[in-house]
Write a structure and sequence with these properties.
By secondary structure, the protein is an alpha+beta fold. Helices cover 49% and strands 25% of the residues. The protein contains five helices and six strands. The strands form two sheets. Strands 1-2-3 form a three-stranded antiparallel sheet.
């Protein structure tokens, strides 16, 4: 079976970079507090700060680009195909006949960037299939298309 053809929105890279940067905020705050409370170990503080800048820089700068290269999605008349991940990659194929619900989610950063995530819940123990970081209009079109295809199918996905 061919790989899914469609990419998330180009703004996905910004979304993933912002989310990664937000993960580092508590660590930076902890290092600042540590530096204020324990100013006698300047060498350790500098080493920790350098390590944080390097690792956080890689996380914020490289991971979003890598994820964008990997993430793909596609909808056919018979299935929803996704490929996601960056370190561990996952490929999911959900038959249209197994779709139970189709939801759209827009978090605060998603709304700021005009993005949305479409979640396709299926009658599967593997859980829902997520199509992340779509332009809001594309997400709405995707939900409408999946709803129409699943409605034509007429099978009960339970």
């Amino acid at each position: 079976m061919a790989e899914p053809a469609w990419r998330p929105s180009p703004k996905a890279r910004a979304l993933w970079a912002i989310n990664a940067a937000l993960m580092w905020v508590p660590i930076v705050i902890a290092q600042v507090v540590w530096g204020v409370l324990d100013s006698g170990r300047i060498g350790w503080h500098i080493a920790a700060a350098v390590a944080t800048v390097v690792v956080a820089g890689l996380h914020v700068g490289v991971v979003p680009l890598w994820r964008y290269r990997v993430h793909r999605w596609e909808i056919s008349d018979t299935a929803v195909h996704t490929r996601s991940g960056w370190f561990t990659q996952e490929r999911r194929i959900a038959p249209i006949s197994r779709i139970q619900t189709v939801d759209t989610e827009r978090g605060p950063i998603d709304r700021l960037l005009g993005l949305a995530t479409v979640t396709v819940t299926t009658a599967s123990s593997a859980g829902a299939v997520e199509i992340t970081a779509l332009d809001a209009a594309v997400a709405d079109e995707t939900v409408a298309r999946l709803t129409a295809i699943a409605g034509r199918n007429g099978a009960d996905a339970t």
